Amino acid sequence: MPASSSLPIDSALGHLVDLPNGAAEDPLGLLAVLARITDPRHRRGVRYRLAVILGLAACAVLAGARSFTAIAEWAADADQDTLKGLGVAGAVPSESTFRRTLQRLDAEVFDDLAGQWAARHTAPGPGGRRVIAVDGKTLRGSGHGGEDSRHLLAAFEHAHGVVLGQVEVGAKTNEIPLFTTLLDRLEITDAVITADALHAQRDHATYLHRRGAHYLLIVKRNQPGLHAQLAALPWREVPKGYDKREHGHGRTERRTLKVTAVAAGLAFPHAAQAIQIVRRRKLKHKWSRETCYAITSLTVTQATNAQLAAIIRGHWGIENRLHWAATSATAKTPPRSAPRLARASWPACATWPSPFCAWLVQRASPLRCATTPAGRTGHYARS
To answer: Is residue 150 predicted with pLDDT exceeding 90?
Structure first.
């Protein structure tokens, strides 16, 4: 049964269905970006433009599809206005068309182009500064038949919750050498890059300074010399710069922040301030305490204590935003029905849209497409 236009509508489709007369008319539309991807298929026998297939797949993933069959079923049930807006004339692509096309898609090209589009649409306003978290995650369910699970390093934009880019971390390497590879693809001038302790590397700090970016890096005992320097600072003499108490989920949490200038006394490139974060948590009438440290190239005139606290909190929030999507079976697990699936293509067509499309939903105005056809609630979330 086709979806009724009177059903609840998918607001994010507005950013896909913005080219009713062809993708080339609006260079800023997402369909126009998808049209720039090289079609991996042979010209002979092609019935659907690549942008049409990718647009349908993205909408289906938004509706909860997590297999090629579910994508094809969503397309078959979409109403005519939706199909027309996505450039479909006549019959919709079949499951085999989606499967063969997406398996052969160049995942890196897709990531780069879609990330560039997202970056343009999330640019900060006058006087604003972009904050980007760099962090990695192993994809649950991505290892089958003796293959290693896939690990991605992603650049996650704090304010809008969108992935600006990601690279795969091979089994014979780690995240550290891919830090610059990932950021080389992005415009980071005057941006603040946040990262966990693994990336508190002197070479990373030098690289970011050369690119005109700032950093805020968590420091743990994997850098014993730097950690000892930070712990030895006279924190008792430093006044609290930020103090906040929160209640929720059966616990009480209090976070305090102290900041001190260290431009002349810390053996780390371009460090301007050291930060001590103390988190106290009460759960089931028991208190716990955790102290950690961070360093930043932001000076006292470039960021207030409250702004530093918000940046740190935003970085830790990646666990609830990007990492939840990365471990969600809906977003990240390749279909079991396709054990020979080209592993490099699945993140491009199914893992990347999860946080990206969530951002689209948050910022878009309502349009005309039902996310789930009538009588099929929850149907597309099957594997």
So the answer is: no
